[in-house]
């Protein structure tokens, strides 16, 4: 990242302000389900990650 700490802080705050809660609430809402799946898998990979490493929410939760 080029520039000063202040310019980095400004850029981060601008991006943070663009976040819309409804876009990520679904991940929070199913966290207990996802954590249980991780426990069931003994910490190994779950179905929540595709080959691009993007989080996937099971369709049957919504």
TrEMBL record:
Molecular-function GO term, any one: nucleic acid binding
Protein name, per record: Uncharacterized protein
Organism listed in the record: Choiromyces venosus 120613-1
Higher taxonomy: Eukaryota, Fungi, Dikarya, Ascomycota, Pezizomycotina
């Amino acid at each position: 990242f080029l520039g000063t700490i202040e310019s980095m802080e400004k850029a981060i705050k601008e991006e943070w302000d663009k976040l819309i809660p409804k876009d990520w609430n679904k991940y929070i809402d199913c966290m207990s389900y996802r954590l249980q799946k991780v426990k069931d898998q003994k910490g190994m990979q779950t179905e929540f990650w595709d080959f691009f490493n993007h989080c996937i929410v099971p369709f049957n939760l919504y």
